[in-house]
TrEMBL record:
Pfam families found in the cross-reference section: TetR_C_1 (PF02909)
UniProt key word Protein biosynthesis: no
Keywords noted in UniProt: Repressor, Transcription, Transcription regulation
Organism: Rhodococcus wratislaviensis
Xref: SUPFAM superfamilies: Homeodomain-like, Tetracyclin repressor-like, C-terminal domain
UniProt-recorded name of the protein: Tetracycline repressor
Amino acid sequence: MGRPRVARLDRERIAEAALELVDRDGDFRMPDLARHLNVQVSSIYHHAKGRAAVVELVRHRVVREIDGSAFERLPWDEAFSEWARSYRAAFSRHPTAIRLLATETVRDPGSLSVYHAAAAGLRDAGFPDDHIMAVITAAENFLLGAALDAAAPEVMIEADSTTADDALTRALAAAPRGPARAEQAFELGLAALLAGFRNLLQERGAVQR
């Protein structure tokens, strides 16, 4: 009998396996990843030079679902809204990866394309160069929180109030339940962000005039 066939190791398979561990544990160790792949650690290093490189493979696997193409065909605020929605959706599918990816430097060209599209769209809209990364980072801070909220329990706050007229009790009673709670908060937050960014752009235009 011949030897049992083993799936060929490549960067895609490494990324998928590492993301499986991150989805389960929130992080990964190289020896654990090697065991998960049924290979030696040295075999992984043939395709990714160290743990940081594997993290970048994981990032690329997550962010490749973020769509920045709308900046090429829509007004900047509509494009930014589409970009933001796809960003939140991508990370809400892998909420335990957020801490890992948010604390590692982005270097992979595939991952950087997410930022290239947004930066180019904002610059074309008239945002000054010294504000573009602040706009993107402010949006990311909100979107990553929104992705975590999408994976949160349906009931996040249970008030122990002695009176039904308590402001928090009334607010909780009036709020949507289940997934609609996170959706309402996301839509409100995104609208507020875009309103603030539009104001920033208008102020920039007023200064230039």
